[in-house]
Each structure stands twice: as structure tokens, then as C-alpha cells.
Amino acid sequence: MAYYPQELNGQPIYIKSLKVATNKKVVKSDYDSGYQQQRPKFTRAYKTFELTYDILTDPEVQALNTFFEDYQGLSFIFTNPITYTEHTVMFDMEEFPVTYQSGLVRRDLGVKLREV
Q: H or E element: which one contains 26?
């Protein structure tokens, strides 16, 4: 299984921020008397990861874009850079938006991943 690219040519790709959320959906039923009943919708929780990049180089943008094109809709392994735990994930996005700033020198990118 493929690994999400976190370095290029032996150099780490700098992540500006990482947001990790644990999700566990519930099913809710409201009653006329004002009571509410709920239960877990699924038996397990899953994590989502939101990575924010800034100051990317063109080769870094191209490497991440190529990975997105090759693995969109497929699962791959993402290593959490804080805990170093591996998670099997998929992209939780359908486009790869790169923002160019400061005279096209600075490239910003946001990537969303969802555990499968």
C-alpha cells in the first residue's frame, strides 16, 4: 500500500498545521414531550486529518498533486507527524486547490484525509 508523501528528495515537506478530529456519528430521535433519544450510528469511531501547507516549492506541489491524481478514491497510509502512528485513509476532497500568493512565489494548500 502506498504512503502519503511527507518528504521529497529526503527533505520533509513542511506542514504549517495539522487538525485531527475523532468522529463518531449518532442517530437522534426527538419526541413530542421534549425528550431525545440517541444511539451510536456506527460501532467504531474514525479520524479525519486536515493538513495545511504554506511556502511549498513547485516540485512539492507537483508531488502532492500527482499523488492526489494517482490515489483519489483509493486508500493509502498516512503517518501522523506528531504521534508517528499510521492510519489507512482516503482523500476527503474532490479537488486539489493550490493558492498562489506574494507574486506567485508562495504556494498554499489544504488537504483533507478520512480514516477508512
A: strand 26-30
Q: How far apart are CA 96 and CA 62, in angstroms?
A: 11
Under DSSP, is residue 20 helix (H, G, I), strand (E, B) or coil? Answer: strand
Paired with 21 in beta bridges are 48
CB 113 within 8 A of CB 92: yes
Separation between Cα atoms, residue 88 and residue 76, nearest integer Å: 6
Q: What is the pLDDT of residues 37-67, one digit of tens each?
A: 999 999 999 999 999 998 899 999 999 999 9
97-to-38, 59, 107, 111 alpha-carbon distances in Å: 37, 16, 10, 9
pLDDT of residue 101: 84
pLDDT at 90: 98
| CB hemisphere CA count around 103 (13 angstroms) | 0
